[in-house]
Amino acid sequence: MPDHATSTDDAVQRQLDRLWALGPGADTLGLDRITRLLARLGDPHLRLPPVLHVAGTNGKGSTCAFLRAAIEAAGLTAHVYSSPHLVRFNERIRLAGHLIDDRLLATLLEEVLDIGGDIGASFFEVTTAAAFLAFARTPADACVIEVGLGGRLDATNVIRAPAACAIAQLGIDHQAFLGDTAEAIAGEKAGIAKPGVPLVTMAYEPDIASRIAKVAHAAGAPVLARGDAWDFGIAEGRLHYRDARGTLALPLPALAGPHQPANFALAIATLRHQRALRLPDKALEAAAAIARWPARMQRLSPGPLTDMLPAGSQLWLDGGHNEAAARSVSAALAGITGDRPVHLVLGMLANKDIAGLLAPFAPLTTSLTAVPVPGHVHHDSAAIVDLARAMGIPEAAPATDVRSAIGQIAAGATARPPIVLILGSLYLAGAVLAANGEVPD
Fold first, then answer.
1. Cα–Cα distance, 118 to 413 (Å, whole number)
2. pLDDT tens figures, 94-121
3. String of b and e for 88-113 (b: at least 16 CB within 10 Å)?
4. Does residue 303 have a pLDDT over 80?
5. Cis peptide before 84 (omega within 30 of 0)
6. SS3 of 142, please?
7. pTM value?
């Protein structure tokens, strides 16, 4: 799958340009190229701190954020590998709590390309190898590794013996690579299962749960599913978690949205069912407050974009781009709107389902403004407008960019300050964060 990355650092950009010049962007999943590449590098993936490996359609990034927060709250350090980035490529590789610096990133990319440029590895495979080199060479107590695409054939799945694996919310996405049914996609995600390693999961529909159990059994991995090995509920403003070790009453997560308690609980279950790390309950409690995951129902701070709206307005950002994400984000939006007008700003990549994303939002939406996704092949704004009108959103119009879209919304604002949500693509979200001066660190 084509990736896009630029850097303001000349040394990093030279390596990114070199990577693209090799033409390694073939849309082919598999472990052969990454395995050969890592072998030439001395197999750094076999020398990592204890790994927590997380797959899923939605929520895996938030789950990783909660894992990292809990580990750091315990006074430990964690490497984190995630994708895609929002503003800077460096966001993908966090070394013992800090984003990788440009000098080291350039050096690592150069090393990987020098030794394996003839293998034809993909962009993601090359950058995964660079991350594993960094992780193997930098001391830390743990690694939190987010699956890039699927699981079974994802480049991160060369990890042989993680401390625990987890699967977050599942849905339909990336059908060209993972299959056309929820069961097929679940089977691909469950491909991260390893012999004797706990596979901690959410609760799923019976057919999906059966597919995961079958794949895990074949791998020799015990499945620890919500509702069986662990569970949680919400009462009196607290998250009540329970498993065979006992119960915990924890704060609700600060991350916005009614879906985040489930991601938090999955992270807790993952940590409590592994044996490599010892974390006190106080660290889990602290994680609820300190976990951050940009562009996931993020309320934007005062800045060039938010300042365009009338006083009292709210500007929210989410990178959701599939139907499952839309259900979660629309529920979060419904919880904050009251009787205020809701305006969507939407830009989507061409391979994404507009109707599936829009359907949960249509009953909430006062207007929709369609925008392009800069630098990417995206749905035509006029087509998005036509579909929005057909779905019952009569006030729909195109704009040349997000700034223009917000200007249009501000110009039409009434006495009630509006709530504006920008969504549809993480690439669009990254451009919005940069424009508002909120670069993740």
1. 56
2. 999 999 999 999 999 999 999 998 998 9
3. bbbbbbbbbeebbebebbbbbbbebb
4. yes
5. yes
6. strand
7. 0.93
